[in-house]
Amino acid sequence: MKDIRDALMVARSSDGKLIRRPLSPHLQVYQWPISMALSISHRVTGVGVSVGALLMTWWLVAAAVSDSAFATVQGFLGSGFGVFLLFCWAAALLFHLFTGIRHLVWDTGAGFDDWVHLGKTMPTYRASGWAVVIVTIVATLIVWIVGVVIW
Amino acid sequence: MAQPGKSVRLDVLRSELGRVRGLGAARSGSGHWWLQRLTSIALVPLTLWFIASAMRLEGATRSDMITWLHGPVPLTLMLCLAVTTFWHMELGLRVVVEDYVHQNRTRLTLLLLIRTLCIVAAVLCVISALRLGL
């Protein structure tokens, strides 16, 4: 044991032996339920949209600096790679926004009961998880269809 | 009961209570949690507004940007968005680093870098927006 925090990992197995507690989640053992996939995706998209925020910074700063600097940004964002980045940013931002709202609803204590639909019962968190996925896809498509039409 | 130390060597000799007390709360957890909620609530309308604005500014020239930010409402919202975004970003990235980076030196370096980056980016956005809008 090297770190004092390892002391928290000491436990007893059922035969009384001292063992090192296994760490959950067991990614390679679990079947991935939607909640687990959305939870880690919320985190990953959070890091992703941070990169987007830096893109926004570059865009604003260039606009404040000079015509040529702004033309560079607009040129980059209009290029194939730029459009790809913008698409990923929009999708990640909308996803993070909707899963974030789901988290805020959970913070009020709601959303953990059962959801009954067409005589079938499923946990509300599973239904809201799929709802977030669908709403994200629809919203991303709307943003891009409208965006391309304006363009 | 098995002999302690038979299967795991306990170099750290502390009682269970001592461990809990020694590793207790830093007393800043609820403040962090609450700020993350507050900034996220503010970011819901601000983000939707930003996406709509960015869509209308597709292919904008610099003078379009100036016209846009000359409105007091877009300028105010842009400033709120910049501050809240980077605040929320610092809180979020901090948790990611704290969860996955266990080496103290690397962790501290990353946390300082993230905080610096967020503050500098927020100030840059605020100054640039004011420069364009005022």
Write a structural description.
- The complex is a heterodimer of chains A (151) and B (134).
- With 151 residues, chain A is mainly α.
- Chain A has a single domain, classed as Up-down Bundle (3 helical TM bundles of succinate and fumarate reductases), CATH 1.20.1300.10.
- Chain A is 66% helix and 9% strand.
- In chain A, strands 1-2 form a two-stranded antiparallel sheet. In chain A, strands 3-4 form a two-stranded antiparallel ribbon.
- In chain A, β1 (10-12) and β2 form a beta hairpin.
- The N and C termini of chain A lie far apart (61 Å).
- Chain B is mainly alpha-helical.
- Chain B has one domain (29-133): Up-down Bundle (3 helical TM bundles of succinate and fumarate reductases).
- Chain B has 5 helices and no strands.
- Chain B has helices spanning 16-22, 29-56, 62-70, 72-100, 104-133.
- Chain B is elongated and about 70 Å long.
- The N and C termini of chain B lie far apart (75 Å).
- The mean pLDDT of chain B is 88.
- The interface between A and B is large, with 46 and 49 residues.
How many domains, in number, for the residues of chain B? 1
CATH superfamily assignment of chain B? Fumarate reductase/succinate dehydrogenase, transmembrane subunit
**Of all protein chain pairs, which has the greatest interface, and how many residues does each chain bring to it?**
A-B, 46 and 49 residues
Structural class of chain B: mainly alpha
Structural class label of chain A:
mainly alpha
CATH superfamily grouping of chain A: Fumarate reductase/succinate dehydrogenase, transmembrane subunit
Total strand count of chain B, please?
Answer: 0
Oligomeric state of the chains in view: heterodimer
Enter the CATH topology name of chain A. Answer: 3 helical TM bundles of succinate and fumarate reductases
SSE run of chain B: HHHHH
CATH topology of chain B: 3 helical TM bundles of succinate and fumarate reductases
How many H/I helical runs of chain A? 4
Helix content of chain B: over 70%
Please tell me how large the radius of gyration of chain B is.
Answer: 23 Å
